[in-house]
Design goal:
alpha+beta; 6-stranded antiparallel beta sheet; about 120 residues
Length: about 120
């Protein structure tokens, strides 16, 4: 069972990451978001920043659909994210090890190739 503190710890430990000041969590690498708190939109009401749900960058529609169909207990989406390579992750349903893999994968998809070696200890991607 993971939470916002786990996201902060895992994302913040990755090279070249900046946490943007927000009501929840919002992590960027090279000015590109890779994991942030879900801004739930509610008709007629202000959006609610959900720190129990992480939005993850997944790279492409095929990966998005694989996650949504393969693990619907963990991942979901909304119409606002149609056509975008993003999924929402229910943090309470994932353990810290899997969360670490997901956050690192999201980071790898957003970081410039020239900086990947900083995570891999100097090896090529």
């Amino acid at each position: 069972m993971a939470d916002a503190d786990d996201v902060r710890h895992l994302a913040g430990a990755l090279p070249h990451v900046v946490e943007i000041d927000s009501e929840g969590f919002d992590f960027r690498v090279a000015d590109k978001g890779f994991v942030w708190s879900y801004p739930e939109r509610r008709p007629g009401r202000p959006r609610l920043i959900r720190t129990d749900v992480a939005v993850l960058y997944v790279g492409d529609e095929a990966e998005k659909q694989a996650l949504l169909l393969g693990e619907p207990e963990l991942f979901f989406t909304t119409p606002a994210y149609d056509g975008l390579p993003l999924v929402m992750l229910r943090l309470a349903q994932v353990d810290a090890e899997r969360l670490g893999e997901l956050v690192t994968d999201a980071w790898r998809m957003r970081v410039p190739e020239s900086l990947v070696a900083d995570l891999d200890g100097g090896s090529a991607p």
